[in-house]
Design brief:
The chain has about 160 residues and is mainly α. It is about 55% helix and about 0% strand.
């Protein structure tokens, strides 16, 4: 899925302003160069003037910032290396960690979006890519997960 779409979805889901997105990125990496003008470019639609493609580096830092915001940072552990390439599976995993979702929560979220997922399908999404039962998360599956999570967090929306 396009990183800009993921960023827009999460922004809507959590009702975040541009400044909050910048602050969230800085939670993960205080030295990362990002400002409100860049964020506004990331949030525009592809065909709008001023659209800027959101890099994997920005989205990874934003998702890590969400994890630190919701779960806190454990300074006793060494810093994890930043992923250079983001996949739909990684987005799903980071959102699962940030919102402390269990398997039952994940199933409820997919069901809310009208996209039921079996237990083996769900566990396959969180396996290592070299595992024989690994399954890549498709754009439609991630889109439905984001939709279901939005319905869970913003029920009146």
């Amino acid at each position: 899925m396009i990183t800009n779409d993921v960023l827009r979805s999460i922004r809507y889901m959590l009702d975040l302003g541009d400044g909050h997105i910048v602050d969230t990125v800085h939670l993960a990496d205080p030295d990362y160069p990002i400002d409100r003008e860049q964020v506004q470019g990331y949030l525009k639609k592809d065909e709008e003037p001023g659209f800027v493609a959101c890099s994997d580096a920005v989205l990874v830092r934003f998702l890590d910032g969400l994890i630190f915001h919701f779960r806190g940072r454990d300074d006793s552990l060494p810093a994890r290396p930043m992923e250079t390439r983001i996949t739909n599976n990684l987005v799903l995993k980071k959102l699962r960690v940030a919102f402390q979702l269990k398997d039952t929560d994940m199933h409820e979220i997919f069901d809310k979006a009208g996209f039921p997922v079996s237990k083996p399908e769900l566990s396959a999404l969180f396996r290592q890519p070299d595992h024989k039962n690994y399954r890549a998360c498709g754009d439609q599956m991630l889109r439905n997960f984001l939709k279901g999570l939005t319905l869970r967090l913003r029920p009146a929306a």
